[in-house]
Amino acid sequence: MRFLDGTALSDAQKLKVLARLRTLWTHHSTALEGNSLTEGDTRLVLEEGVTISGKPIKDHEEVVGHVKALEAMAEICDRSPPFLAMEDLHRMHTLIVGESSISSLQPVGEWKRMPNGVSMPTTSGGMAFLEFSSPDHVPTLMPEWLEQANTALRGSVNMQDAPDIYAKIHLGFTQIHPYYDGNGRMARILSNIPLLAFGLPPLIIDRERRNEYLASLAEYSLSISPLSPESGVWPTAGHSAPFFAFCRQSYELTAAIIQNAVDAERGADTGAK
After folding, report:
1. CB 261 within 8 Å of CB 17
2. Whether the predicted model's global pTM rises above the 0.90 cut
3. How many structural domains comprise the chain?
4. Domain containing 15: what range?
5. Cβ atoms within 10 A of the Cβ of 232, count?
6. 138 with 155: CB under 8 angstroms?
7. Within a domain: 219
8. Would 121 be classed as within a structural domain?
9. Per-residue CA distances from 149 to 72, 124, 190, 262, 269 (Å)
10. Numbers of helices and strands, H then E, in the chain
């Protein structure tokens, strides 16, 4: 909540703005993965606890799980000093995908046991299948990723550097793809921890920019081989510039979203007087 300190809002108003951001963040992040709930549906599920008629139960569970993961993220940011442990990742995965394991090959709160990959749109307008790191390599790659995340938490993050720090952490996590499911939602939360821990606004990726988001990720993935202990988490040959540029643009858009929410809360307060 520290990123709202300079807005001259009361604590009650700040909580209302944060509730709006929680709904927006949850809606956009789950919608990027195909969740069918609208922004209004998401607000009703989170604030009123209602079930939206005709919408899958799974979609309801996804938005509730996402908010629980945001709460876990806030706890991590509030640590003094802030740090991220491997156990935090497994806990967050359990919150995001649910506690029930579908099978032993799709464990919850544990690293993946089967290879995974995904078809994604490319900047040329086509589709490409992207293969992620081998399950055998995850236990070696994830400590390197975790050390980079904690290095950011031990340093200093400012508004100018924030989207680049977010982009690097996001790229590393999604290229490893350490879990059988939920990796995108986790990446978008985990990459925000250094930002929020230093009192900066989060970076929210708009669902309307889904194709651009995925295409910039695909361009990076296609420029490298699947990660291994030999390559490390961030191969120097990777073409990461499009994704970094996308994150910088997304951070500017997020700042506008937050300002709109602040202005709306001020307007509501003025109208009530």
Report:
1. yes
2. yes
3. 1
4. 2-108+132-272
5. 14
6. no
7. yes
8. no
9. 16, 32, 9, 30, 39
10. 10, 2
